[in-house]
Structure formats: structure tokens, C-alpha cells
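Hi everyone,

Forwarding the result from last night's run.
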Amino acid sequence: MFYDQLLKLCETKGIKPTPLVKSLGMSTGSIKNWKEGTLPNGEALMRFSEFFGVSIDYLVYGKETSNVKSFDHPVDLSEDETDLLLYFRKLQRKEQRAVLVQMENMINQEKEQSATKQGKYLA
């Protein structure tokens, strides 16, 4: 599972696993073990996690943990919400900000349209 995730993440970044492993200071000989199902050590998992901006759960299991703490209450995320969060985390900070602004604009347009419809019904 880990090796498949590594390949998928490398593909999204347009990089090859071997040069990445070298650049992160790991032995390329480990790649053979990962192909056979062995997991990297904790240090390696942390490096991959930080490089790709994903959780270790995602690297190991292929999905993010479905519970997120928000105001000390666990929140169950739908599959779409989990995907959205994964994609969002892959963006650079500037791109994340642009997405947030776009979402806010969409919500404001929705509110304006709703208010306009309510005004018509009240008139």
C-alpha cells in the first residue's frame, strides 16, 4: 500500500521515486523493500509526509483519518470533504488563499441570490 501511495504522489508532482528518495537523504535500496510491502521507518514516513503535505495515515493506508477535531468535537467527513482537504493541502499557500477567497465569493453570491428571492416573495 505505501509504495502505491508513493508512486501516486510522485506522479501528481511529476517526479520519480528514486531521485526523491535520494533528495530526502534515504537509501534507494529501501525502494525494493517498499515494493514488497515493507513500511519505511518513522523518520522516512515523516519526511514523505512533510514533502507531500499529507498525513502518515494517507501514506500508509491510502486515506486520511476521517475524524477531525474541531472545537473539541469530532467531525465525520464525507468522502468529498476528505478529497477536498487532500487536494487543498497539496496547494501552495498562495493557491490555498485563492481557493478560500473563491469559496467565500460563491457563498456570498448564494446569500445575495437567496435574499433577492426572499425580497420578491415579500413584496
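The beta strands are 67-70, 73-76.

Cheers,
N.
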